[in-house]
Design a protein that fits this description.
Length: about 190
């Protein structure tokens, strides 16, 4: 997604900052568009015009908060890199803040574009890991396979069956995905 520039970027930054600050000060349930607008130094109509309603604004803020800030670490092997990434992904998404961001991202997303952005963030991170592996000469699954076999089950469990959702589960998903990738090799 192209980030807006100029005044639009300043308004977005001010409103997002206001949401984060007010959430910390008064709690998410006390947020209103007029309160946020006042803190951001804009009119409520500016917020409504840009985001439509409070849910869509909270969804936009959540998607930005879910954006990874750095590339995945390079640990020298696909297994180590993907395991570390899956652990961090699970840790971030299953934290109270992460769960709230996921909930907000989905609640204010009538057309599915925010879910698509969140999915793209994960796919971009996975692509970095898989590209590194390919550059080292390692056999690696494709991005969609990792999304289907690691990210999708983690998100499903996070949203609907959080019991037993821990790093051991993430490790099992990574191991099964990499074992399958090895078995799918033409030379086996």
């Amino acid at each position: 997604m192209v980030r807006p520039g100029g005044r639009s970027a300043r308004v977005q930054a001010a409103v997002h900052t206001a949401v984060r600050e007010l959430t910390a000060e008064v709690g998410r349930d006390a947020l209103t568009v007029p309160l946020i607008a006042r803190r951001a130094g804009v009119t409520p109509s500016t917020v409504y015009r840009r985001w439509g309603d409070l849910r869509e604004l909270l969804s936009d803020v959540a998607v930005e908060r879910l954006r990874p800030e750095t590339a995945p670490e390079d640990h020298g092997t696909l297994s180590a890199d993907l395991t570390d990434w899956a652990e961090q992904f699970l840790d971030e998404m299953s934290s109270p803040a992460g769960r709230a961001y996921v909930r907000d991202a989905l609640l204010g997303d009538p057309d599915g574009s925010n879910a698509g952005r969140c999915s793209a963030y994960a796919a971009e991170q996975i692509a970095v890991v898989l590209t590194r592996a390919a550059e080292r000469g390692e056999r690696a699954p494709d991005v969609e396979t990792v999304m289907d076999r690691i990210v999708a089950p983690l998100m499903y469990r996070l949203l609907f069956r959080p019991q037993g959702l821990d790093t051991a589960y993430a490790h099992r998903l990574v191991t099964a995905t990499l074992d399958t990738a090895t078995l799918d090799r033409p030379d086996h």
